[in-house]
Protein 1
Amino acid sequence: MTAFWKEYAENRVALVALAVVLLVVAAALAAPWIAPQDPYDLANLDLMDARRPPGFVGSSGYAHWLGTDAQGRDLFSAILYGLRISLQMGLVAGASAMAVGALLGILAAHAGGWVEGAIMRVVDLQLSFPAILLALVLVAVLGQGKAQLVIALVAAQYAYFARTAYGAATAERQKDYVEAARATPLPGWRVVLRHLLPNCLPPLIVVGTVQVANAIALEATLSFLGLGLPPTEPSLGMLISNGFQYMMSGRTWISVYPGVALIIMITAINIVGDQLRDQFNPRLRR
Amino acid sequence: MTAILAAEGVTRRFAPRVTLGDRIAAALGARVDRRAVQAVTDVSLAVTRGETLGLVGESGCGKSTLGRMLAGILPPSEGRVLLDGAPPMRAGHKTTTRIQTVFQDPFASLNPRQRIGEAIAEGPVSHGLVTRAAAPKLAADWLARVGLDPAYAQRFPHQFSGGQRQRVAIARALAMQPEVLVCDEPVASLDVSIQAQVLNLFLELHRALGLTCLFISHDLAVVRHVSDRVAVMYLGRIVEIGEAATVYAAPRHPYTRGLLASVPKLSLDGAAVEFQPIRGELPSPLSPPAGCAFHPRCPAATDVCRAQRPALSPRADGTLVACHHA
Amino acid sequence: MTAPLLDVRDLRTEFHTRAGVLRAVNGVSFTLARGEILGLVGESGSGKSVTGFSLLGLVDPPGRIAGGSISFEGQELVGLPPARLRELRGKRIAMIFQDPAATLNPVLTVGAQMALAVQAHGGGGDRAARDLAARSLARVGIPDAVTRLDAYPHEFSGGMRQRVAIAIALLHQPDLIVADEPTTALDVSIQAQILAEMKALARENGTALVWISHDLATVSSLADRVLVMYAGRIVESGPVAQVLRAPLHPYTRGLLDSLPAMGRPGEMLAQIPGSTPSLLSLPPGCPFAPRCPRADAACAQDPPVVGTEGRMALCHHPLT
C-alpha cells in the first residue's frame, strides 16, 4: 500500500488532482456550515440582490464573491450545494452501476454458455449507442426525481462495468487459482465472490472513478436540458441552465462559475482515474 | 493391494470452439479447422492405495489432461474415472473432497488477494471439516507442518518465495484430509535447492499420512525419486507402465529407452557424454500417425508398426508395454 | 598460452530500483579461450543471466554496468559506443535466449529475417543471403531447409524455433555465443538433440560458448569448465569434472546433493536449508553463510579466494 501511494505521489499532477477532489468532497460535505447562505431557504432570498456581479455586498451584509443569480441567490453557496447534489448523484449512480455491472459481467464469464451470450449481447448492443440517449428516454418515461435519475444513470452506465468485469473475469478464470478453488471443490458463489471478484476489482475501480465523473456530467446534462432533478434541488447543471439566458446580457457569471466548478471536479476525478489506471496496468509500469 | 483410483478407457477430446464468426466464414467458403485434438486416448490404469504412481512424458503427451481427469476436475469424453467405484464428478462438477490437487505454478495457483491462512482453511470450513472458529488453528497447524511459521497466516502470497508458496499449496490440499493427492509438476518451477526441500516434504507427508499419490512430471529423475510405479505416456497413450525400479533399469519401449538416454547425466568422471537423442519431433496430435504413434521416430519400426497399433500387454516381470518388438 | 578470447575482470552490474540498489553481478572475473565451452550455473537471482547480458552490453536501464572490464580480443567492451557494440553483436558475438520469440519477428518469414541479419552486416546480395540462410538452417538440423525459409516462426514447433534462433546466431560464424537457458523450455528429447548439435558446432567452428543454465547435469555434459554463481558472485570455478567430483564450495556440494539423481529413490534428499538471499539487503561477509553447514564466526568477513585462477572457490572453509 505504501509503495502504491509512493508511486502515485510521484506524479505531481495526479497529486494535485487528488487534493482537488478531496477539497471538493470536503467542501460539498461541509456546505451547510461554510456556505454563507442556505440557497434553498426562500426566506433568505432577496430579489433586490438578484443578478449582482461578483463582489457585490448584498442586503444581508456579506459579500457575494461569485455574484448572485436571477433569484438573488448567493452563487458561491448555490455552487457548494450544487456540488453536494452532483457528487451525491454521481457516487450513488456510479456505485450502483458498478455493483450491477460487475456482478453481471463476472456472472457471464463464470457461467459461460447461453447466460454469457445473452448478457454480453445486451451489453454490446447498449455500448453501441450513446448513453445519454438511453438516459433521456428513461427520464422521460420515469419522470423527475432523484430515484428516477439514479435508475436512468445506472441503466445508461452499467454496461461499461459489465464489459470491464467480463474482460477481467475471463482472464482470471483461466488462472490456476480459480481451477484450484473448483478442484477443492468450493461452491460456485464462493468462487465468484471470494476469488473472481476481488481479482477483478482493480480495473473496475479505475472505470468506476471515470464513470463517477461521467455520471456527474450526464446528470448535469440532463438537468441542463430540464430533465434532471426538480428545481427544488438545484444541481450544477441546473445552475448553468438558469444562467444561460443571461449570457448575452453580459451577466456571464451566473452560468460560468457553476460551469467552472463542474469542469474542475470532472477533470480532477478523471486525472485521478488515469493515474490509477496507469498504476494498475502492469504493462505501463516502469 | 486394492485400487483406490482407476481410469477405465478414458479419452479426452478438445474441440475447437466454433464461434458465430467461424460459421459465417465457413458459409462463405473459408476453411475452418474443426478437428478435435485428442489429448488422451483410451487410457486405463489403476492407482493402488498407498502407492505413488509417477506419470512421465514430454509436453503435449496428455499427462496433465489425464491427471486432471483422475483428479476429478475434467470430465472424460469417453470412459470413466472411478474413486472407490464411484465417479468423482457429477454433471461436470467435482463432488468429492477425497482427491486434492497440487498445481505446477505456485505463483498462479494461490489467489493473490487471499491471505494464506484463509486459503488453507477455506475448503475445510466450506465443507464442514472444521468450524469457522477452529479455522485459524487449522491453518496454523498446517503451516507448521509444511515447515512455515504459523504467524505467516496473515500474509499474502506475494510475500513468499516460490518454494514457500508451494508449501502453502501443499498445506491447502492436505488440509482437506484427502486420501488421494494429484501433483501436477509440483517442483517444475522451483530452483534445484528448493526443489529438494519440497520433494523431501512431499515424501515425509506422503508417509506420515498414508496418502495415495499421482505424481505428474516431465522430469524423469524426480519421478524416479518419488514413485513406486511409473507410467510413460506418448501422444495421449500409455506406452509403458510398471515398477519404477524395473522400468528405469530395463526400459522396454523404445520411447522410454530414448527418453532415458536423452536425460543429461552428471558426468563425474569427466568422460565425454554422447547423447543418443530420439530422432525427429512429436507429431501433431491433430493427425496422429496410424499404427504405433511412435513409429516415425522409432529405430526399430517395421511394417507391422505402421499398420497396427500395439496393445498394452503384460511382460513376465509385470511391466505392461505397448510395442510390437519389445 | 595465447591471450584469451574474452577476459572479464571485476564486472559489476547494478539495478537502481525503487527499493534501493540491487547488485546483480558483484565483482565477477573469468576468462574464456577460443573454442572453449564455459558453463555458468546458478539458481534464479544468482546473477548468471545478468552476467550474460552484460557481456553483450544488453543491460537496459534501470540496470547499468557499474564497474569492471570486459575485454574481447583485447578490445574493451565496457563503455564502447552502442553502434560499435551493435556491430560486434551481430557479427562476432551472438546471443541465444531461453525464449526464441525474443529473437524472431512473428510477421516476417524466417528466410526474410535471416537475410536481413546477413545484409545488416554486409553479407552481399539477396541470392547469397538466402543461400547462407539455408545452409545455416541445414546445419542446425532443420530438414528441408530451403523450403522452410518461407515459413513464419509460428509454423515451427518450439524446438525448431529454438534451432532457427541458433541458426541466426550462427550466420556470421561468430567467435562467441552467449546462450541463456536455451533448452530450459524444451522437452528432454529435443534438448538432447540440440545439446548434441551445439557441442558439434562449437567443436567444428572453434566457436567459444558461454552456456548459462540452472541445470548442473546439462552443463556437465556439455561444458569444459564451469562457473558456479551465488548472490552475484562466482563462488567456485574449474574444470567440470573436478568441480562436480570434488567441489570446494559448500554451496556447490549442496546443489549436487539436492539433485534427485544423486539420492536413493524414496529417501530424503540432502537439502540446503533456507532460500536465496535478497540482493537488495546482502549482509556483509559470505552471502551463503546463513544456509551453510560449515559457517562460523569467520564467515562474517568477506570470504577469501582459495585455489588458483583455473580452480578456485570463494570460501573461508572450503571442502577438500
Protein 2
Amino acid sequence: MGVDLIFKIAAIGILVAVLNQVLIRSGREEQAMMTTLAGIVVVLMMVAKEIANLFDTVKTMFQF
Amino acid sequence: MEILQIVGIGIVATILIAVLKTQRPEISLQVSILTGVVIFLLVASKLSAIISILDSYSKKVNIDTVYLATLLKIIGIAYIAEFGAEVCKDAGEGAIASKIELAGKVVIVALAVPIITSLLELIIKIMP
C-alpha cells in the first residue's frame, strides 16, 4: 500500500534537488526557491495523509 | 515472509534517505517518517489479532474490561509518544523530543490514576 509512496516521495525529492541545481546554475535563484517550496508542500501533503492514516489505525486498534 | 519485506523496505528507504540527505534534508526526514508509518501499518494486522485474542482471554477470565481498555490505551499512547519523540530526535530536535516524552508520561499517569485508586482501596479492604 504505502511502499510505492516511499519511492514516489524519494523521486520527488531527487527531482526537486536536480531542478534546484539547474535553476540555480541558470541564474534564477528565486524560481529555484519556489520549486523547492512546492516540492516540500507536495511531499508534506502525502506524508500528512499517511500519518493521519497511522493515527486512525492506532486509534481503532488500541480502542482510544 | 513479512519480516523480509519489512527489512527490505527499511534498507531501501535508508539508502534513499542517504541520497537525499545532502541535497534536501527536509524531504529525507519525511521519507523516514513515512517508512516508519508504512512498516507499522504492515505489522498492524498482526497486532490487532493479538489484541483481540487478549480481549477474548480477559472476557473468559471475566477480568473487568476497564482495566484492559486502560492498559491498551496506555500502550497506544506510549507508542505514539515514542514515535513522535524518535522522529524529532532524528531531525536533531532533542528538546522537542524530551517534551513529547514528558507529555506522554503525564498522560499515561493521568490514565493510570483510577486503576491505582481501585488497587489502594482493595489493599485497604484486605488489611485487618
